[in-house]
Amino acid sequence: MQTWNDVIRLANHGAPEPPRRVEKTNEEWKKELTPQQYHVTREHGTERAFTGEYCEAHEAGLYACVCCGTPLYDSRTKFESGTGWPSFTQPVEENAIRYKKDTSYGMVRVEVLCNVCDAHQGHVFPDGPPPSGLRLCINSASIKLVTEKAPA
Which cofactors must be present for this protein to function (predicted)? Predict the structure, then answer.
């Protein structure tokens, strides 16, 4: 389980190798994504609070990167943060996401990116629930829910 100390260490020293890499030109991304998805994931934008599709979603499944399909978050780690964005306590794997120091807008934050395609996801904060204490505050436009299949 990752903690805030792990996040800072990974932000300063880099993420573990991703399982694969997906790299495309801006024009290729623009053809595949909606304007909102492109703005959030490729231009490091943020959707307005309480407007995202997954803000209050409770379906079981995995949340994958909207750009490359890599599973990033498990619905079992999703919680109601009251912030207006989907919030998770952990990524599905340590190498699924990458943390990066973000000093934009006169603040110091830690940005969350897909480690496979570098898509901006959101930011992580040390004010989440136990046991990790993490709140990965993620834009709905950067993820898609892949529901779990019922056993046959």
Answer: Zn(2+)
